[in-house]
Design a protein that fits this description.
Arc Repressor Mutant, subunit A, about 65% helix, 2 domains, mainly alpha, about 150 residues
């Protein structure tokens, strides 16, 4: 496997397997939360001052679609909307205790599922995997500068 395209194909196949493992962990949770709603909770958990505009931007949807997702989450007790104390015209999105518990449980299920698979690998391969993933993360975080910017053409 010398060519970048062959390596990319192998990485894509591995990512598909990884996504399948994570999806099985999500579906094993009761009740299983739909992926779009889970994405909302994940975004809100990562950003303390999320409002509807920022959420819609992060989801790459129109604000009304983001609002409908929040309606569903609020109805199930997983999300709260409150007036922003800095600007009462803004609505902040907050996780509830139930949603924090749901995210923690899901994170634990995912890690357990991954650990079961990783335990089947030889120790040396696990170490190689960690090094390769770290190198990949580093390369992805620092993309090379574009040599010709098509946006100015």
């Amino acid at each position: 496997m010398e060519y970048a395209s062959e390596i990319a194909e192998a990485v894509e196949s591995s990512v598909d397997a990884l996504v399948a493992v994570l999806e099985r962990a999500r579906l094993a949770q009761s009740p299983a939360i739909p992926p779009a709603q889970l994405r909302v909770l994940t975004i809100v958990a990562a950003n303390q001052h999320t409002n509807m505009s920022r959420l819609a931007e992060a989801l790459d949807v129109v604000p009304s679609s983001a609002s409908r997702l929040c309606d569903r989450l609020e109805a199930t007790g997983l999300l709260r909307r409150v007036a922003d104390p800095r600007d009462r015209r803004e609505v902040r999105l907050l996780l509830t205790v139930a949603s924090r518990r749901l995210l923690a449980d899901l994170r634990e299920r995912r890690r357990t599922a991954l650990a079961e698979i990783l335990e089947r690998m030889p120790a040396g391969s696990r170490q190689d995997l960690v090094r390769a993933l770290q190198a990949f993360e580093s390369a992805a975080a620092d993309p090379p500068a574009a040599t010709d910017d098509l946006r100015t053409a």
